[in-house]
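Supplementary notes for students who missed Thursday's class. We covered one full example, reproduced here. Read the sequence, then the structure, then the short commentary at the end.
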Amino acid sequence: MAGLGETCSHVASVLWAIESGIRSRDSLTVTQKKAYWVIPHAIKQVPYATVNEISFVGKKKSQKLLFNTPTPSPSANQLSPSAPSVASTSTGECSTKRPPLTPSQEEVSVLFASLASTSKHPAILSLIEPYSDKYVPSSLHEALPMCLSELKKPDYLEYSYSQLLKVARETPICLTMDQVQAVESKTKLQAKTPLWFRMRTGRVTASLFKRVSCTDPASPSISLLMLICHPELNRFKTAVTSWGCEHEKVALSEYFEAHSSKCKHGKVEVIYT
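Structure (token representation):
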């Protein structure tokens, strides 16, 4: 029992659900009722016609076309037989038929150059050289290490725990100093760049180390595996994190300004990329 009404709240919830179900059962949509759209009393019969004989133009538009349609003059074509053909459009206006204009190679080059000079990334330029080089994902850069998700094979789903350990021991994973520096320079923005999530795929980061050490290696937590194998899905946003992201640059600037005088190796600078 809870509250002054001496009735649990789940009783009211059950009653509301029953009432809603009965209303949905007894109510019918307009397509479930017979003859919902009744013919007006002034109309006794609705004649049928094929689609090509039906005019879908409104009353005002049809009247405008009726009174504005020009009358063709047979003497006009006789006086100028070499003149271009003239056709009447659906709006009643006359238009001269002209062959489509084909742009020259120089005009096309100028168009692509003007598109490339903008701050946007038009998709058409991804197919045009030399602009297509800018559309290659940074994760495919030669200096970056291989993403660990590329080691996945369907056959591993049938392996036992001991077989998976053997495969892990026989799979070399080596990083060069150039690859480490490339990842560090390209992921400074962290969650603001997709490469940051790609490089974290399959790796045990500091925020997950405690959970990994507590789980059973032979039967690990499914949610923990999802966080390790799909870090891009582990995104959350709260008022606290939003405030921190908005004031991050201000906090870093004030911190380094306060401690730059105490640094033994010279001035400390904050570099934003």
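Commentary. Strands lie at 86-88, 94-96. Residues 143-235 form one domain. If anything here is unclear, bring it to office hours.
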